[in-house]
Amino acid sequence: MNTNQIKCFITVAENNSFSKSATKLFLSQSTISKNISRLEKELGFKLIDRSHKHIKLTNKGSYFYQIIKPIAQKLDDTISDLRENSLSLTLGFTDTPTESKFLPKAIDQIGQLNHVSVNVEVIDPNTPTGLINLLREKYLNILCFEEDAFYNAKDIKFLPLKKMGFSVMLKRKDSLHNKKVLNFKDVKNRQIILWSSKKVLPSIKKLSFRLANENNINYTKKYDFMTIASKVKSDAKIGIIPDILADKNDPDFIYIPLNSDVTYYFGIAYNRELDNRPYFQRVLNIIKNSANAFLNDK
């Protein structure tokens, strides 16, 4: 069994075609077929059912693909790192006020490391593919956001940095602006807009329940922060948003903590495979230390 055989099998399994696989690998169809046949002979079982017009994996072939795919990817990554003695990362930046306070400094420090390069991709937290898939598909390697955006994703590792909650977003001249903390009863008779991602996070579900079912408070949901800001500014409404979206230096709004038991952790999410990559722990520590320096001052 060799890496060429494995690569041929994985490519055919993912493309369901010998011809497409041949084009991708710059090999002839016969070479690919021979590699897979030799692999099957060594394994002692068939991987591909060739009795049909279209390529179809056998049951054992499907299981073998699920096992060998991540192993092959890790092998490729390791060889690449050892050859180049470097680490290349793509860091996702959702442009929240919290991130903006510490991430640029961290990126600058990472850029000064030898053998490490970092590319920054500005992303929308409401991206249709979802933050989890951006990490799984390796479009991104690492990003900072709420932990509950990655719940049940066992292949994604999350390093918590700080427990956070929600804030009430008000115009600076709002009648509630002098309060240090707001309770549900303080906002009961107000028109409320609750921030929510398109894929509703567990913390938002829990807060929605607290508002509607336990306190009989009416609200509407919006996933666009700019829409919420516009409504609060012009229509005398108030917003309820995660603390990571609250900019304490905003000249137009004031953000007052909401007294609620609904919390979440803000932190760093990344694919577990990175734990074993050269230099990654140094990168992780830079982001963690930079974030903690800011978060501990809040």
From TrEMBL:
Belongs to the LysR transcriptional regulatory family. The keyword Cytoplasm does not apply. InterPro entries: LysR_HTH_N (IPR000847), WH-like_DNA-bd_sf (IPR036388), WH_DNA-bd_sf (IPR036390). Transmembrane segments: none annotated. PROSITE patterns: HTH_LYSR. It holds the Pfam family HTH_1. Residues 1-58 form the HTH lysR-type domain. This is LysR family transcriptional regulator. It comes from the Bacteria. GO terms for molecular function: DNA-binding transcription factor activity; transcription cis-regulatory region binding.
